[in-house]
Amino acid sequence: MQEILKKLEKEALESLEKADTLERTKEIEVQYMGRNGHLTMILRGMKDLSDEEKRVIGPLCNSTKNTLEEAFAKKIKTFEEEALAKELSKEFFDTTIPGSARPLGHIHALSQLQEEVEKIFSQMGFTVADGPEIESEYYNFEGLNIPKDHPARDMQDTFFIQEKNDEKHGRMVLRTQTSPVQIRMMEKYGAPLRLIVPGRVFRFEATDASHDSMFYQVEGLLIDKNISLAHLKGVLAEFLTRLFGKPVKVRFRPGYFPFVEPGLEVDFSCLLCEGKGCRVCKHSGWMEFMGAGMVHENVLKAGGINSKEYQGWAFGFGLTRLVMMRYGIDDIRLLTNGDLRFNKQF
Ligand code: FA5
After folding, report:
1. Mutate to test the pocket of ligand 1, among 113, 257, 260, 289 (most ligand atoms within 8 A of CB)
2. How many domains are contained in the chain?
3. pLDDT of residue 149
């Protein structure tokens, strides 16, 4: 048996040596190692041997099997590598050509401006706060001194999304303004406070070139001792000057918002004509910017702040409208319709 195995190994290795193609090599492999191959048959016959014979022949069979397996694998690999090299040599592959660039996206004009606003206010010591977009009637209205059935509710057409929450909080709404976060932050942190709240707000309005049903606002709130509107004017002038990179003046006019007293409309000097008067500012020299005022006593109370000790101001501007002013965009809907030809310009 030992003789037979040695002879078989020798013959197999000799034919392998002579094989000059991959196909021929595989044929020989089947001849010896296939289902009915010479070595396979011997291995199959092992079960008929005595224990004594198995002990001697067994290791020899395994060694022959390993030797042949290795030899076939090596030769097959050599043929495959040669074939691959031949295939590759047919194509000219210039490794010095730069790769093709993947088009990269970029940050949307609205988000770019939001980041700038956050940076400037952070540098002035303001915290950037956040609040829920699905808000209760209490935070969106009552807490802000807009009682149920008060005509001031009509100023902001509202999406109501749930019939009843609880007695105090009322129904759930899509927030119409970022102002509810004022109350939430007063409740959470108390006074003093200095924060801005950028975020999305929703109004049940017909859309046109300057109105959308979803847009971005930035709320501002400062509460401390001995605070006056002079501080607001200073902060806003500084903010706008840094944002636009040139001196900007701020003007206050009386305005009405139930959550501030006195209430203000804030304008800034026209960026184009620097206050001289032009088509963009309708020859007034001023651009309408936002609402603001001293935080109403009832709002401080709702936030759990002692109005005898602390006072402050709040403001709220439309970030979406500010982007429009900055780039001269004449239709608000362009900012959210996802048209890449538009978005790529910023
Ligand atoms: C408010 O929402 C107040 N919460 C602002 C405020 C905060 C006043 C704190 C006082 C103190 P108003 O409804 O005016 O105010 O909206 C503020 C800004 O949002 C507007 O100046 C305008 O720039 C923008 N805005 C209002 N409605 C729309 C709309 N449909 N589409 C786009 N922008 C809008």
Report:
1. 257
2. 2
3. 85
Shared-domain flag, residues 250 and 113: yes
Task: Walk across the sheet containing 311-318 and list its strands.
Answer: 127-128, 193-202, 214-224, 311-318, 286-295, 260-269, 250-254
Is 162 a residue whose pLDDT tops 90?
A: no
CATH of the domain at 209: 3.30.930.10
Q: How far apart are CA 12 and CA 29, in angstroms?
A: 9
In a domain, 181, yes or no: yes
pLDDT digits (tens, 9 = 90+) for 293-342: 999 999 999 999 999 999 999 999 999 999 998 898 989 999 999 999 99
166 within some domain = no
The answer as to whether 149 is a domain residue is no
Does 301 map to a domain? yes
Is the per-residue pLDDT at 164 higher than 80?
Answer: no
Q: Whose CA is nearest to atom 24 of ligand 1?
A: 318
Q: What is the pLDDT of residue 29?
A: 93
Distance CA 28, CA 22 (A): 10
State yes or no: pLDDT of 100 exceeds 80: yes
Q: Are 172 and 162 in contact (CB under 8 A)?
A: yes
The one-letter code for the residue type at 276 is K
Residue nearest to atom 19 of ligand 1 (CA): 318
